[in-house]
Amino acid sequence: MRKSLILAVAFLCVFSAFIYAQEAADTPQAAQTTGGADSAAQTKGDGSSAGGTKGSPFGLGALIGAATFDGDTFTQIVLSPDLDLGIFGIGLDLNLEFSSDGKIREGEWDSWQAILSKISYLRVGHKGEKFYMRFGSLRSASLGHGTIIDRFDNTVFMPDVRLLGLQLDADFGAVGFETFTSNIFSFDMFAGRVYVRPFSGLFRNLHVGFTYAGDFDTKNLVTSGKDKYKFSRSGDEDSKKVSILGADLGLPLPSLGILTWLLYADFAQILDQGNGFAAGLTGEVAFILNWKLEFTRNSANYISSYFDSLYLIQRDTKFQSLADITDPYSGWLFRVWQDFSIIGKNDLTVSLQIRDSFQDDLKPILSFDLHLDRKLLFDRVEIDLNYTKANIEKFGNIFQIEGLDTFVTLSFGYMIAENVMIAIIYTKTFIENEAYDPTDSTSKESPYKGQDAIMVQTQLKF
Description:
The chain has helices at 2-25, 28-34, 112-116, 311-321; strands spanning 58-69, 72-84, 88-92, 94-98, 119-124, 131-136, 165-171, 175-181, 189-196, 207-215, 242-253, 259-270, 275-285, 289-298, 329-340, 348-357, 365-372, 381-389, 406-417, 420-432, 448-461. The protein is mainly beta. The protein has 2 domains: 1-64 and 75-109, no CATH class; 125-461. The chain has a 20-stranded antiparallel barrel. The chain starts with a helix and ends with a strand.
């Protein structure tokens, strides 16, 4: 109980400090110091629960509600302070869950790894700039043109388990690199891409890249319970090591006024398995939408974008599933996305991606993201949706959220007073399946099971 009281007092101190800082930043003197209103803009996935005041780099979100973990219901208090200075940003996700007898949920505050996981993100720069670093939650991580790693998501176990990933990129002009790991504690997944621009003149922007991506322990699965942040290697003799090598070319084409585009071609080889070739165009049209159109030709035992948004859920079985692809096949991908600033900064975000093949055995994958800020809906209603669906056999399957091929978060919020929102949130995330026995080769159980939850929360947005 003493530990609970200490943490509760600490929460109140953090809450008060950010309120004070935000009020100070809203004064004319502070506004001149911080350098303008645009510094408060938040990139997608940064401080999503923090409200933020126009003209201030500070944001603070808070919520009070109930949450269910492993069948037990807890009273939940979360503070989400956020600081965005443009080139630098940091967000925290400070959560307290109390059981019915007043005890804090085990595993959340009793190790240094658990405490460090309260960092939602730490960011320097933005993806695509000369230098970029992101530490924490990775909701849409990609390398190069996305042929090997595309929209990777390490948040599929939240809010039960938070993984801390890392992206580090640098572009020195003639040479550059991108790196990625999904979990710094276990460091069991890593990818790196090095690229050069070897020419001058007309082809000075042509880049040539080389990629290595690996999963060193496919049996190293995320667990629940009090020891969930004690990450280590699995030590399982049946664990596989997945290694993928890739090479790519990219050339920006001359702009056609309202159309900018880049032509690219990629080749990837999964060691001891198959390989694939991808060619496509990506760019912006009418200064409104970003777009990508890609065609692939793959051998047997190969999947494009092997490390995708659902990879951590399929990790234990995905490598073995390559054996089910017995014939060469062709496929395609189409994606459109944009962050619109209609009334405020990035108040409308839309992203749609569809990947499919011309072979009936391989089913389409759909991803859809939507953010509607309350500024667009009479300053009252706010909507957020993140949805990924794999193995779509027919149109009706798109709306079925059963199984391990669906990840969804839907939030509907309504402002009942200034800075106070009532939110209804539906989530389908994944937790450890206690019925799974890795030593039983005949079992049809998966290492994970879906966890559906509907929560009603009172959120404070400053």
